[in-house]
Amino acid sequence: MREYEIAAIPADGIGPEVIAAGLQALEALQQRCGDFKLRVQHFDWGSDYYRAYGRMMPEDGVAQLKRFDAIFFGAVGAPEVPDDITLWGLRLPICQGFDQYANVRPTRILPGIVSPLAGVVGRCYDDANDVETSEPRYDRRHQSSRRHIVGPCRRARGQSRHCTDRQH
């Protein structure tokens, strides 16, 4: 039987709810298939961790994640914690530490789901938003004084040429 080690980082906001529902679905799939087993370890990293310890995750956080087959990441951010703290303290160290340059977010309206996008008449909505995490905004070499400075770039669906070239 195949076994997979999953690091679950629910973090903040809707993250815990999304991770809990996702793990429930994975548990159902595991039971239905019966040919693999998931072992999940939860990490309490995020804004609450920041408020308690002054950092978003332990200094060796990325090293702790290296033994896992996958990282199931929720959402990060809280109104009272500046965005650059959550971005540079948790999300980007993980993404860049594992060279996870693309964060693909599928979006689809499912039958029976009420959505603000459901008013699109005569079409179904099925898309994927790709967030490039090695763009200049996310690379400290292109920044000064921790401000987000985006260099000149051509945009295609919210991505620079740097991003689209890297994906192909």
DSSP, total strands: 7
**DSSP helix fraction:** 25-40%
Largest sheet: 3 strands, parallel
By DSSP (H or I, 4+ residues per run), the number of helices equals: 5
How does the overall form come out from the CA principal axes? globular
Mean pLDDT: 77
Q: How many distinct folded domains? A: 2
Beta content: 15-25%
Structural class: alpha/beta
Cofactor: Mn(2+); Mg(2+)
Keywords: Manganese, Metal-binding, NAD, Oxidoreductase
Pfam families: Iso_dh
Domain Isopropylmalate dehydrogenase-like: 5-164
What does this structure look like?
This protein is α/β, with parallel strands linked by helices and 168 residues long. It has 2 domains: 1-100; 101-168, no CATH class. 32% of the residues lie in helices and 24% in strands. The strands form 3 sheets. The protein has a 3-stranded parallel β-sheet with strand order 2-1-3, covered by helices on one side. Strands 4-5 form a two-stranded antiparallel ribbon. Helix 1 links the parallel strand 1 and strand 2. The two termini are 35 Å apart. Mean pLDDT is 77; it is low at 142-168. Keywords: Manganese, Metal-binding, NAD, Oxidoreductase. Its cofactor is Mn(2+); Mg(2+). Residues 5-164 form the Isopropylmalate dehydrogenase-like domain.
How are the elements arranged and paired?
Blueprint: E1 2-11, H1 15-33, E2 36-42, H2 47-53, H3 61-65, E3 70-75, H4 83-97, E4 102-108, E5 126-132, E6 155-156, E7 159-160, H5 161-167
Parallel strand pairs: 1-2, 1-3
Antiparallel strand pairs: 4-5, 6-7
